[in-house]
What does this fold into?
Amino acid sequence: MNQKVKENILQKIKQYDKIFLFRHVRNDGDCVGATKGLKAILQATFPQKKIYLIDADTAQYLEFMGPEDAPVAEEEYRDALGIVLDTASVGRISNPNFSKVVELIKIDHHIPVEPYGDIMWVEEERSSCCEMIVDFYRTFADELVLTKEAATHLYTGMVTDSGRFKYTGVTGETLRNAAVLLDAGVDTETLFARLYLEAFEYLKFKAYIYEKMCVTENGVAYIYVDKAMQEKFGLTQEQASAVVGNLDSIRGCICWMALIDNPDGSIRVRLRSRFVKISDLAEKYHGGGHACASGATCYSTEEMEALIRDADALVKDYKEHNEGWL
It folds into this structure.
């Protein structure tokens, strides 16, 4: 079935002279890598077509991947094809002009919570949306052109969304797709330096995290990055959100989360786990995502505390009925 869907997507790409690419708000390496990688492939393959990627919100840590296109008049969308990548629901599409295109294609690897688009290609078992774009290229390698630039963008998304290939969802096919990108000339030394080198001041903040983090009775590690903490260390929203990655190696904790004060008064929640499914919990708190990597939003400290209690109960139930969770 997916083969036919991919064939339909390629035919639509060939049909239109103008294509707009879209991704989700609060962007990450996967949605940026997928949109930029697909754009580079399409530009190299169809130089006569106009390919646009317009998004005013680019995460600071991904600025090395280059700028987006300048905004265009709304009329430009009305005779174009739109492709939305790495976005489960229309409410999370960052550029609202997606609704003005003639036809819309959805390419995504999240749990399908909201069907949309004229063509939908969803593979929730994939480790990243970038992996799907590599698969798309490999399916039509005799027709499409993979440049070093495209490969670098796609490899960035694969690496960041898979935790450098250690998360659930990484398969032999994931690594075969990654190998295609490496063969195209990705400079991994430079890429990893851009992604993972940290400022000295941020390292001091990480030490502070380990002092302030909490662990619930049944094994949920969490840290509340409130406004005071953000101001104390001069954190951007991206840096504050990245804190969740520092809680992933605590023995006995199979769920961990970072709770970050947003400027609008809400609290962003980044949920991660091993073994136990947390996407249903995220959906209960205005979010969603993957089985072991989700996001949510709380609108009061009381709601945040309720989420922590629910997470603790979820972990307790899992541990009581399962073995092998270390």
